[in-house]
Design goal:
Length: about 450
């Protein structure tokens, strides 16, 4: 069955149907972090990661540059400087602040003092907008951010429509509670190339907001242009996913996040060296202490912060979600909606629920061919939902679709088998989400399609 499924998969993945069906195009919420952060690839690398020169020695106060939410202009001009290694602007400012900063290190509000969890909607731009202000982050900005108790309130996430049905799948929050301060720290680390051995590669180098937090190359490209043999999967909707990687070898997002740092062909660093680098940056040190207490910067806490940022990256409702919800309603209440005037009089609430669903669907228009694709995808004919099922369109299980299995035996990537050594897992890979699929080509574990 491998081959035939693959053929259909390719047809649908590269064609119009699935794209319209599950991609959320411009309205998608995954773009919101992208807006708050710099938009384009070049811009983003620059803004989030001041050049190596401007790191530890020169400008310890700037773990990441920041642009005001929704405004990329200042990010652009400032980042041009960082790229050419000119951090002059940041240096004098840093000099001034360095004197006072030590005493402030303990000043932040410890998380334990804040009670009352607060419910937030994931995907809200507010969560990933970063520390307010223009230009590179200063210690003063970091201090005033950390001092606000709001940043340390534990957040209870809700999922946007479409994903919301997967609420029961949310994992990892008990062990690593969500707070605004931790999300922001994770965001800075995620875009910071200084985590790599030579300051050239960040998580975003292979999981770029521009490409749906995946990347448009067949394989991830690490330091010195090295490549492995697997395609970069998406880093969104991870909150609904337990084990990570194509073969599920990392048991949690936290465990996954520290892997690439020490992977010789990815970020090429050691965990020890990475901790030393991050610790040497005062702006980071303050945030780690404020968030994690005395132990401050450790590799596990770096993993916790990165995982926290990734957990808030979610897709918004797709045109299909809105269409489907409306269609379900129309089916369930066919009799009631036959006479709308009557319904308005008899059951105002149901009437207004119907109007809202209609408005939501009108706001996310869907083409007839996408509807057809959706019917195939979710119908018996396509059979896709045997595996691409649930809110994130994945069963989180491992299957061999035959992809890459035609290579010489010694070149074959056996996927899940390498983890379990169980013969039934030979060549099996984790079912990926197909949400936002148009943004994340090429496809499959080996990027072959
Ligand atoms: C050099 C490119 C590269 C870099 C840098 C990189 N990744 Fe990845 N990432 C990949 C590839 C390739 C995979 C799939 C590897 C596998 O399955 O064996 C992956 C897998 C993942 C996954 C698993 C997703 C899933 O669906 O299972 C997550 C999450 C992730 N990376 C986050 C990160 C974070 C966080 C960082 C920074 C600390 C990072 N990556 C750095 C290329 C990269
Ligand atoms: C038996 C389970 C199964 C079925 C049925 C199935 N898929 Fe998949 N799908 C997977 C797995 C597993 C992968 C990853 C395979 C690999 O990389 O080797 C995948 C990969 C994909 C990808 C690439 C995603 C990416 O990010 O690389 C798309 C698109 C896709 N499937 C769409 C479909 C469509 C459309 C159908 C129905 C015609 C379908 N699939 C049926 C399990 C399945």
């Amino acid at each position: 069955m491998g081959r035939s499924v693959t053929v259909i998969v390719v047809l649908m993945a590269t064609g119009f149907l699935v794209s319209q069906l599950v991609s959320c195009a411009k309205t998608d919420r995954t773009e919101k972090p992208g807006t708050a952060q710099p938009k384009g690839q070049a811009q983003q690398e620059k803004v989030a990661t001041p050049a190596k020169e401007s790191s530890a020695e020169v400008a310890p106060a700037t773990p990441a540059a920041e642009s005001p939410p929704g405004e990329s202009k200042s990010g652009e001009s400032k980042s041009d400087e960082s790229e050419s290694g000119k951090s002059a602007e940041a240096t004098p400012a840093e000099g001034e602040q360095a004197a006072t900063s030590e005493s402030k290190e303990q000043a932040a509000v410890p998380a334990s003092k804040v009670s009352e969890p607060q419910t937030v909607m994931l995907g809200a731009a507010e969560l990933t907008a970063g520390i307010p202000g223009a230009g590179e982050l200063t210690l003063v900005q970091i201090d005033s951010w950390l001092k606000d108790p709001k940043q340390h309130v534990v957040l209870k996430p809700e999922l946007p429509p479409g994903l919301a049905a997967g609420a029961g799948q949310i994992t990892g929050l008990d062990a690593n509670p969500l707070t605004r301060a931790k999300i922001e720290l994770g965001r800075q680390l995620y875009f910071d190339k200084r985590l790599s051995s030579d300051g050239t590669v960040s998580c975003a180098s292979c999981h770029d907001p521009q490409f749906g937090y995946a990347f448009n190359t067949q394989f991830g490209v690490g330091i010195d242009g090295q490549t492995g043999n697997r395609n970069s999967p998406v880093a969104y909707n991870r909150i609904l996913s337990g084990p990570q990687f194509w073969d599920g070898r990392a048991e949690s997002l936290e465990a996954q996040a520290v892997g690439p740092i020490a992977n010789p062909i990815e970020m090429g660093n050691t965990h020890e060296a990475c901790v030393v680098t991050v610790k040497a940056i005062e702006g980071y040190r303050k945030q780690f202490v404020a968030i994690f207490g005395e132990e401050g910067v450790t590799i596990d806490n770096i993993g916790r912060a990165l995982a926290t940022f990734e957990r808030v990256l979610v897709t918004g409702p797709s045109p299909w979600d809105a269409y489907q919800q409306l269609a379900d309603f129309e089916k369930a209440y066919a009799d009631d909606i036959a006479d709308l005037d009557e319904l308005k009089k008899e059951d105002e609430q149901l009437y207004s629920e119907y109007q809202q669903l209609k408005e939501a669907s009108a706001a996310l228009p869907i083409s007839p061919s996408a509807i057809h694709g959706g019917e195939l995808f979710f119908g018996d004919q396509g059979g896709c939902t045997a595996c691409h099922v649930g809110a994130n369109f994945t069963d989180e299980k491992y299957h061999n679709l035959g992809v890459g299995m035609d290579k010489p035996a010694d070149k074959i990537d056996w996927g899940r088998f390498e983890v379990t050594k169980d013969d039934k897992d030979r060549g099996a890979f984790k079912t990926p989400t197909v949400r936002n699929i148009t943004l994340t080509a090429p496809y499959m574990h080996d990027g072959s399609q």
